Amino acid sequence: MNILLVGSGGREHALAWKMAQSPLCKYDRFWTAPGNPGIAQHAQCVNISVDDTEAIVSFARQNAVELVVVGPEDPLANALGDEIRQAGILCFGPSAEGARIEADKAYAKNLMRAASVPTAEARIFTDLQSAKDYVLSRDNGVAVKAAGLAKGKGVIVCPEPYQAVKPLEEIMGKKIFGDAGNTVLVEEMITGPEATVMAFCDGKTIYPMEPLQDHKPIDDGDTGPNTGGMGAYSPVPIVDGAAMDRIEREILVPIVDAMRRDFGRYEGVLYAGLMFTNAGPKVIEFNCRFGDPECQPLMMRFKSDLVEVMVAVAEHKLAETTIEWDRRAAVCVVMASGGYPGTYEKGFEITGIDQADAMDGVKVFHAGTSAANGQSSGAEKLLTAGGRVLGVTALGDTIADAQKRAYQAAQKIHWQDCYYRKDIAAKAIKP
Fold first, then answer.
1. What backbone torsions phi and psi does residue 298 show, to the nearest 5 degrees?
2. CB distance 58 to 48 below 8 Å
3. Sheet holding 267-277, edge to edge
4. If pLDDT is split at 50, 70 and 90, which confidence band does 378 have?
5. Over residues 139-150, mean pLDDT
6. Among the four given CATH numbers 3.90.550.10, 3.10.620.30, 3.30.470.20, 3.40.50.2300, the one describing domain 194-320
7. How far is CA 301 from the centre of its chain?
8. How many whole angstroms from its chain centre is CA 129?
9. CB-based contact 161:142 (threshold 8 Å)
């Protein structure tokens, strides 16, 4: 079938790699907008921005595209899914109303309250002074969250309430996240290990996927500022069968039911970021798409036909689908530009990807790369083009095996000022 994948990051490379393994997906009928040099190995790159809804819909119509898969959250929040469906084309990804579960954290928090979904208590503010007065009146730590889309960086945890004043001033006053910080949530600080559970949803059926754990802070030991994610692994030892049953019963089913009552069907992937507190799992955040870098190890373990599953979601036939998983573990180590998530330089030559990719059970997913000749493929050299550059992902019989292989592969790859954490998945490995 004719397929268009929207996006250009590591998540989209992982999706393209897995989708290309489907008998339904052939290179000459598989496009990506705009793609990257890694995705170009599997699909034809077209120079259309993810934000150009009109051009994406026009391209899909002109090329008789039968399925559009939307990777990132911004175009979903900007109603790309709605426009694709109105054109009579199947779309994997929620409507703009559905994307509000991520794009508007205030809306998501109120929806969780209405559905009795366990989550941290929170106050919602649109006035900076009121927010500062509130945090200074508290005795315990808080988490400050920009309500809008902030590329995974809009959360600042403050163990002491006074520490929240500066991020509030930066988010609401200096607008470091733009309009995403017009509204801010101040949440109670909850503690415990974290995990991610994503589920396919077709508006009627929920199909949870294998759990993962992400690593948001930039430095080892979960220290330093938050990033879009510095690595991930699956499975997660703390999320056993009983925990998954509870997550589905107390979190996934109630929130999908609440969305159905509020606006109708939620279609695509629902991402639940969870914290396992003494009172049980609580929702930190919902997202409206695959996580990045969680998608990379997830796709390494995904054994079924991804295109078939995506079509089943878009046609509301998910109940007829069975998904098979590789029982091996997977670990993804994100290799980033030095200085990320702050300022960093681009344009450094990358070497060693081919040697890493040649290792058994290893796949290097491109996130922030560009071709030296300005094309999506066919370049003699690859250059860094973003903060998170590569997701080096490996399978292993155990998490420790996968971790070792991922780091062995990462050590083969080099560029100036390259940086990556050295402790991805360490929390899951017994000493």
1. -65, -45
2. no
3. 206-208, 194-202, 267-277, 280-287
4. very low
5. 94
6. 3.30.470.20
7. 16
8. 33
9. yes
Per CATH, which fold does 3-96 belong to? Rossmann fold (3.40.50)
User: In this predicted structure, what is the pLDDT of residue 425?
Assistant: 98
Q: Give pTM, 2 decimals.
A: 0.95
Confidence at residue 431, expressed as pLDDT on a 0 to 100 scale: 73
Superfamily of domain 329-428: Phosphoribosylglycinamide synthetase, C-terminal domain (3.90.600.10)
pLDDT class of 372 with cuts at 50, 70, 90: confident
Question: CA quadruple 137, 140, 141, 142: dihedral positive or negative?
Answer: negative
Q: Which residues in the chain are classed under CATH 3.40.50.20?
A: 3-96
Query: Given pLDDT bands bounded at 50, 70 and 90, which one contains residue 226?
Result: confident
Distance (Å, rounded) from C-alpha 6 to C-alpha 17? 14
Every domain of the chain with CATH number 3.90.600.10 lies at 329-428
In the chain, residues under CATH classification 3.30.1490.20 are 121-188
Alpha carbon of residue 83 to chain centroid: 23
Q: Buried b / exposed e across 182-203, counting CB within 10 Å, b at 16+?
A: ebbbbbebbeeebbbbbbbbbb
Q: Where in the chain is the domain with CATH 3.30.470.20?
A: 194-320
CA distances from 177 to 173, 186, 306 (A): 10, 16, 34
Dig out the tokens for 244 from the structure: 């998954």
pLDDT digits (tens, 9 = 90+) for 183-221: 999 999 999 999 999 999 999 999 999 999 999 999 999
Q: What are phi and psi of 190, to 5 degrees?
A: -105, 155
- Whether 273 and 284 have beta carbons less than 8 Å apart is answered as yes
**Residue 374: per-residue pLDDT:** 59
Instruction: For residue range 84-138, list pLDDT tens digits in order.
Output: 999 999 999 999 999 999 999 999 999 999 999 999 999 999 999 999 999 999 9
- Tens of pLDDT, residue by residue over 282-318, are 999 999 999 999 999 999 999 999 999 999 999 999 9
- Write down the architecture of domain 121-188 according to CATH: 2-Layer Sandwich (3.30)
Which long-range contacts link 424-427 to residues 24+ away (Cβ below 8 Å)? 424/215, 424/230, 424/231, 424/232, 424/233, 424/331, 424/332, 424/333, 425/213, 425/231, 425/233, 425/331, 425/399, 427/193, 427/213
Distance CA 87, CA 374 (A): 32
| Dihedral over Cα of 25, 29, 35, 39: its sign | positive
Euclidean distance between CA atoms 151 and 147, whole angstroms: 12
What local confidence, expressed as pLDDT, does residue 430 receive? 78
